[in-house]
Amino acid sequence: MFQPTVYKVTLLSLITITLSPLTSIASDSTGEVQANKQITQPMMARPEKQAPVYDLPEPLTLKSVLALPESVSPQVVASQARQAQAQAEYDLQDATDAVELNALGRIGWREYADHIEDNHLLALHVGKKLYDFGQTQALIDAQEKVSAAQTELYEDQVLQFKIQLMQSFFNVILADFQYRIENEAMAVAYVALDKAKDRYELNRISDVDYLKLQADYEKILVKRSRAEYEQRRTRAALANLIGQPHRLPDKLLFPRLESVEKRTLQELEAYQEQALASNYELKSLLLKQQAAQYRLEGESATDKPTFRVDAWGGKLSTYEYQREGRWRFDLSMDYPLYDGGVRSAKMSRARAGVQEIEAQITALEQRLRDQVADLYFKLKLSDAEKKQNKVFGDYADLYLDYSRALYENESTTDLGDSMVRLSEANFQVISQQFKQALYWAQLDYLTGTSIQLSATP
């Protein structure tokens, strides 16, 4: 007779497999999600930059993760640096219109009338551009708007980071729940395979039927391994996101999201209007549009004259009483007559820049309307999914009691499948809660409001 491969698993090992998952989900009263501690000793080929390590509670809570400083995110830090650069550029541009005060000094000689004579200088200079028909002011206003635009982008990046933290935290908990489901399914499949092995040895089932059960068991075993790896991957992703890649979180407290449950939807048009009025990215583009318009105005004024005043006082020459004197005052004008098409080219470039930003604004407005509508209807559907999950959970719980009663009466039962079904029902409830919280957070982000999430603990 054909002898297929049979995996030897003792009853003790089955109990170990079933009762020793990487994480155990605590009851609702404690709200804990636990996992075996993962300790890594990474091999570093070269010294790494030491990032600040922040004390986090054990077990880890969503509130503590969201309270981390914004400097944890390199994207937020980079946005903050761009904001500082834009402010520095504004200060630099503003300084070009300030009063100039400088000291001039020279020790020199020159040839004059066939002999060498001294040509020394020691004087104080004061200068100021008086009027240039708005050229300088336009550049200052443009850079001010650019700086304000970077501030809006910084706030945008902060909200994105908060949402990433929420998503990563939820992923860890969902991975733990998924592992629990796959672990229970594997235990059920193993029991079925073990019973089939006995029947197979008694020639009560065929080779084909037994091999099918064995193949099904291997598929479930692969799914369990995938869920186990997902536990590790999601923890590594969370640790990396919070700037502590070598300190994988062990236990996570399940967050209670009462504030999300209490929120109600307004009309879709109200959210779309709020997004078009308050979205940080859109406000940044509108400010950049104003900056581009100021640049265009500045370039259009470059064909106008520039007036400035300069004064010098001191020892203007070695021969101050004969030639240069001790002071000098100039009121000068610089009127461009011909530049070979430079002004026209710069104006064309500035005008194209305005048109490009206007197109970007229109595209972003369209995208915001679509994204807000998508989230709005997902939240609408979320309420229906909540009712569906509740009914399915009640059914799974009742069916488990029914299967347990059959088992106690030594009748044919699918008690193991009932336990898996109940775990799947719990997973769907948790997944729906997390998706709803993320949908609300993303809607807050699109509408330019702070994320309204009050998670306890």
Automatic annotation (TrEMBL):
GO terms for molecular function: efflux transmembrane transporter activity; porin activity. Residues 1-26 form the signal peptide. SUPFAM superfamilies: Outer membrane efflux proteins (OEP) (SSF56954). InterPro entries: OMP_efflux, TolC-like. Keywords: Cell outer membrane, Coiled coil, Membrane, Signal, Transmembrane, Transmembrane beta strand, Transport. GO terms for cellular component: cell outer membrane; efflux pump complex. It is found in: Cell outer membrane. Residues 347-374 form a coiled coil. Gene3D superfamilies: Outer membrane efflux proteins (OEP). Transmembrane segments: none annotated. Belongs to the outer membrane factor (OMF) (TC 1.B.17) family. PANTHER family: OUTER MEMBRANE PROTEIN TOLC. This is TolC family protein. It comes from Hydrogenovibrio crunogenus.
